[in-house]
Design brief:
Blueprint lengths: L3 H7 L1 E16 L6 H10 L7 H22 L3 E3 L6 H11 L5 E22 L2 E22 L3 E8 L6 E6 H11 L4 E4 L2 E5 L2 H10 L2 H14 L6 H5 L5 E15 L2 H14 L6 H8 L13 E6 L2 E8 L2 E8 L3 E8 L14 H21 L7 H8 L2 E2 L5 E2 L7 H10 L4 H4 L1 E2 H11 L9 H13 L3 E3 L5 E4 L1 H24 L9 H20 L7
Parallel strand pairs: 2-3
Antiparallel strand pairs: 1-6, 1-9, 3-4, 4-5, 5-6, 7-8, 9-13, 10-11, 11-12, 12-13, 14-15, 16-18, 17-18
Helix pairs in contact: 5-6, 13-15, 13-17, 15-16
Length: about 525
């Protein structure tokens, strides 16, 4: 049987952590309230802040974009409903031959939070006041090919407060930096398949941060038709960037696709409970209470023949899938940095990156722990046979297959015990839930007896000056091995031998064929009695 952990140790040729897709919001801090909009219009020279002025400014910007497209020789297209923008962009990218430039400008009517004004009469004077409302307005999509970041787009809202969205890809940035440094590499879609200097490549991936992203935005803000003028920026009206959505990925490339597929399918089979609150606490290192918002669930999505494993914490999404049939991709997508008490400003990206990588690593560590259960024959004998400790204490046996023993060992495999251990009461409740409800109640005295033999067998240890226990490394191996043997081999094998089952299982059919073959062999070997 293939050792799952050995596959990661011996068959992974490249292991890279990198920011993947990055979506940013661009906003003007001094243009978020109705009063600030009135002040902005006064700055522009309009004494009466009428909504008609906003319409004129929008029309003026539309003409400016059209002039820009004509001057640059860039096509201006309207996105049709139901058509994927990325598909259209992919067609234009195939035709683009330069190092840097604008592929095309797309127009789409989409929902936005924009200012709407209404007339206000006070003491006989007529004025206007503004409030933010959800409206459908035109947006311009500037699809770009950037020298540093590669494929990207910037979306500009035509209505005040002129929100901007930017889409970048960290892997594409890393590819271009690696090429500039002369690293030889092979791409795997938007990631990496191989590299002659993995350490240097990882160093490049670690360098992507707010400075490079801000430089990208400043460059294209100066080149594209923009809502703000130089005079506006001098007056304090300038954009700030914040993180809208960011993906942190870890890609582990296998030397043999079969090995990778074997590993990933085993992980999906054994981690269907990764979305449970106890495991979410471990992976995300966040305390889960009854007041924590959101649903905690695990989801396996099958797209064609490619399954993927999903878990959620608040608005954060953790995903694992087998990328391009060659690499394991573990990916944390943070949709709201405030889930972890971190602000959205672009300056916090390094903290988010550290957090995302830790989540990916903790998930992989937890998964590998579940397979680290190889034991020697003497170790097994020490568990299933009565033993005596060095100080003369007798440790009763833990019989494999005995319902109470299996319930105890199954309860020990819970990931909830890893951070803080367990007590008599907390473990007893889990064991009671695992036992047959028709049996007698599992009492505290029975739990104390089981804790004692677990301790004497070296499976657990008691935290000094407390009533809390921790599972030993040896104990985790024993609990996992016995639980897997019971669930995957013994129960299935015994079920196959049960003649009362209405549908014969493959093993039962095979055993019946073996029995018939033995009977035929005996019959053919039978000798007639010798005559007198």
């Amino acid at each position: 049987m293939t050792d799952i952990n050995e596959i990661l140790k011996e068959h992974v040729t490249l292991d890279i952590e990198c920011i993947d897709r990055l979506y940013l919001n661009g906003y003007i801090p001094t243009l978020q309230m109705g009063g600030q909009l009135v002040k902005f219009l006064h700055h522009r020279g309009y004494q009466i802040p009428s909504p008609a002025i906003l319409g004129q400014m929008t029309d003026s910007y539309k003409k400016e974009v059209e002039r820009f497209a004509k001057t640059e020789g860039v096509e201006l297209i309207h996105f049709e409903r139901g058509v994927r923008k990325d598909d259209i962009a992919a067609q234009y990218r195939e035709q683009f031959e330069g190092e840097e430039g604008i592929l095309f400008i797309g127009i789409a009517q989409e929902r936005a939070s924009a200012f709407k004004g209404r007339k206000k009469v006070k003491q006989g004077l007529v004025g206007f006041e503004y409030s933010r409302q959800s409206v459908f307005v035109n947006h311009y999509y500037f699809y770009l090919q950037d020298e540093e970041f590669g494929p990207a787009f910037i979306k500009v809202c035509t209505y005040a407060p002129y929100a901007v969205k930017i889409c970048l890809n960290g892997h594409e940035w890393a590819k271009r930096q690696a090429a500039k440094r002369g690293l030889a590499f092979e791409a795997l879609d938007n990631g990496f398949f191989s590299c002659d200097q993995p350490a240097a490549l990882q160093e490049i991936c670690d360098q992507l941060g707010p400075e490079q992203i801000q430089a990208f935005f400043d460059k294209w803000q100066a080149r594209l038709p923009w809502r703000l003028t130089a005079e506006d920026r001098q007056a304090g009206y300038s954009y700030r960037l914040s993180v809208w959505q960011v993906e942190f990925s870890r890609t582990q490339v296998f030397d043999d696709p079969v090995q990778g597929r074997h590993w990933f399918e085993a992980i999906i089979r054994d981690n269907l409970d990764v979305g449970r609150p106890d495991r979410i606490q471990l992976v995300f290192e966040r305390r889960i209470t009854a007041r924590t918002p959101g649903y905690f669930r695990t989801k396996v999505v099958q797209e064609g023949v490619n399954p993927s494993l999903h878990a959620y914490y608040k608005k954060t999404h953790l995903k694992q899938y087998f990328k391009e049939q060659r690499a394991l991709r573990t990916e944390t997508t943070i949709n709201d940095s405030r889930d972890f008490g971190i602000g959205k400003d672009i300056s916090n990206l390094p903290f988010l990156q550290q957090l995302g990588r830790q989540i990916n690593r903790r998930l992989l560590d937890a998964q590998q722990i579940s397979y680290d259960c190889v034991l020697s024959a003497p170790s097994l004998d020490r568990i299933v046979q009565p033993t005596v400790t060095d100080d003369g204490q007798r440790a009763p046996a833990l019989r494999l297959g005995q319902p109470r023993v299996m319930a105890v060992l199954n309860a020990l495999t819970s990931f909830a015990h890893i951070p803080h251990g367990f007590t008599n009461q907390s473990l007893r409740q889990q064991i009671a839930d695992l036992l047959d409800p028709d049996q007698a109640t599992y009492r505290a005295a029975q739990m104390s007896y089981d804790l004692r033999r677990l301790r004497l067998k070296g499976l657990i240890w008691r935290v000094p000056h407390s009533y809390r226990y921790q599972l030993t490394t040896y104990g985790r191996k024993v609990a996992l091995l016995f639980s897997k043997l019971d669930a995957r081999i013994f129960r299935r094998a015994l079920a196959a031998l049960d003649p009362s089952l209405p549908i014969p299982l493959p093993l039962a059919t095979a055993l019946e064929q073996v029995e018939q073959a033995i009977d035929q062999l005996v019959n053919h070997a039978h000798l007639e009695p010798a005559t007198a």
